[in-house]
Amino acid sequence: MEKPFPLFRLPRIVIEEVIRIMSPFEIINFAMTSLKSKTLIKSLLRNGRNSYAELQLNTYKESEISIIGFEVYFEFKVTSDKTKDGMREYKEYMETEKIYTLWIYSDNVLDEWMKVVKTVKEIFKFKKHLVRFEIDNFPTQNKSIVDFIKSLTPSIESCEFYGKAETDEDVEYFLNNLNVTEFVGFNLKLSDRFTFPQDNFLECFTIDPGNWVTLDQLLRFHGSEFCIHDSPLTNYELNLFLIFWMTSQCHQNLCFLLININDPQTLDIIFNLPHERINPDVERIGRLPNNDTIPLRGEIDIKRNDGMTGTIDFKWREDQMLLQMVVSRID
């Protein structure tokens, strides 16, 4: 029987060199062996060696923890498939992204996932956090998952919701307990009664389907980009929304809007407001609110009372017509 390697008996400078060449997989596995190991790792990782761009947490069937650096991903996947334990995989995408994946077996996937997440958060620092919340996989434990994430970080930058259960309760609990600061993506059907509970400013919303998005809800959103599919909004309500925007009564920080049109035959109702028809073959340059410039080809311009222009054109998603508006200043 081989004796374990006496790492703690080595000189500190040698231990530092060993830790320096470890991957995040090896660092986390070592840190989880004992409290002494974790304390050693935390004391040795310094000078930015413990900093990464983003932590992604996914509650899929094989729950994931992704540590994202510059063009490099390290993914832990916790699985109930014992044959995958210790399996490793390496992929490259477009020669710019390198993804290393390690599978960890557990007969209690969620419990093991929480242990790994807790260790990762104790060892490394992250600039951003993204949570992909799959409400179907652990339906009786969704609130416990939210409470666990909140115990580690009460505020996250981004979240995405997935599932087929058509239940509002878990999504509402998530949004009532975790402050989201940049991006929210709804990729699941909620009830028509669902109300978005947060009123802070977000960079972006994506909602698909948006069966619950009423005109009142749309007016109360605070953000700069909205992508909404399958909303019940009528052309008359879209007309009101654009008029409110033109008169600076709502969404003065709006930069981009994509939303479905339920009745393409009556577009004149939407544009029963001051507007200008533009030759779509003519390219113009617009200056965005962040001062960047963008080439524009649009069919219709509408003006806000502060001089900003909404350039509108139309797209199709299968059999559904979409209105797209880019906000800029056109000199």
From TrEMBL:
PROSITE patterns according to UniProt: FBOX
Residue stretches in coiled coil: none
Source organism superkingdom: Eukaryota
F-box domain span: 4-55
Protein name: F-box domain-containing protein
Native source organism of the sequence: Caenorhabditis remanei
